[in-house]
What we know:
Layout: E1 3-8, E2 11-16, H1 24-45, E3 52-55, E4 60-63, E5 66-68, H2 72-76, H3 82-111, H4 114-118, H5 121-137, E6 156-157, H6 165-185, H7 190-198, H8 204-232, H9 234-244, E7 251-254, H10 268-272, H11 294-305, E8 318-321, H12 327-330
Antiparallel strand pairs: 1-2, 2-6, 3-4, 4-5, 7-8
Helix pairs in contact: 1-11, 3-9, 5-6, 5-8, 6-8
Amino acid sequence: MDCRVKNQGNTQFVQFDALNRDGHYSHVQRKRRLYQVGFFVLFILAPVFDIFRIDLTLGHLILFGQDWTLGLAAWQSGELSTAQATWNLIWRGLIPLALIVTVFAYTSWKYGRLYCGWLCPHFSVVETINNLMRRASGKFSIWDKTRSDELRPDGRYIPTRRNLWPLVWLAAIGFAFLWAVVFLTYLLPPAQVYSHLVSFELTRNETIFLSAATIVLSIEFLFARHLFCRFACAVGVFQSFVWMANKKAMVVGFDRSRAADCRTCNAACEQACPMRLKPRDIKRHMFTCTECAQCLEACEQVQAGGPGNSGKIQTPLLQWIQDECAKDTSERDFGIKPNVPGDCYRR
C-alpha cells in the first residue's frame, strides 16, 4: 500500500491508495449534506414565501400563502355556530396535528433521530462549528478533555491552527444573528423585517428581540450546542424516547466478532461523532444518536486504508442494523447477550 505524505499549503495529506475509491458511506454523507443544505434554505425562505409562519400582526397561521385559522374569533363574534366552530377546531387543528405527530413518531420509532441528523438546521450549525473548533483547538467542544487526532480517517493530516479562533467566534455570532432574523420573520411580515434591517430602521421591539436572541444563541452555539441537542431540544428528546421503545429500530451496530480489528484504530468513530458519543457502545448509551453516519464513514475509511489491509476494502465493523440484528445493540445490557442472526454484518 502506497503511503506518501504531501504538503499542500499549510495542510498535509497522508495519501493512501486504498482510499482513492469512494466508500458507501461517503456517498451517504454527500446525500445527507444535500438534504441539510436544502432544508436549511427552506428554513430561511419558508416565511419569505409564506410557506409557513405565525403572523402576530394578523393573529393566525399562514400556510402555503393561505390564512389558516380555527375560526374562534368568528365564533365569538357570532358569525359561526358552535357546530361550525367545533368542526373547524377538529378539521383545521386536531387532525393536522395528529397527522404530523403520527408521521413523525413512526419515523422516529423506526429510524431514531433521523430528522436531527439529516434535516435539522440547528444540527447543521452544530456540525459546522464543530469542524471549525476542531481546526482551531483540536477539540469538537471546549468541554472535551482531550484533543482529537490530527490524522483523519480519510488519510488527511490537518494540524491545529489557533489563528482560526476568530473564525469560530465569527461563525457562532453570524449564525446566531441569522437565526434571530429568521425567527423574527416567522412572527412578523418578512418584508417588514428585512426592509427595517436594510434601512437600519428597526423598531424598539425588533431591536430588543434581535439583540437578545443573538446573544443567547451565540452563547449556545459556542458553549452548549451539544448539550442543547442532547437534553434541551424537545423535538430531539421526543425522537429518542420513541426510538428507545423499539428494540428493532435502525441503530449503529458493532461487529463484536471482529473487535480485535479495532486495535490499530485511534477510535476514529468516536472522534467523528458530532454528538460526542461512543458508537461501539450499547444503544442505551447512544440515546442521542442522530443517525448521521459519520462514525460509519470513519470506520469504513479506516478499514479500507488501515495498516496491513493491502488496499482491500473490508466490511466495516460499524454498520446500520435493524430488525432482529438490532437486538445485539438494544438488548445487550446488564449481562444479557441476545441471540441474533449470524449474517447481520455482511454486506
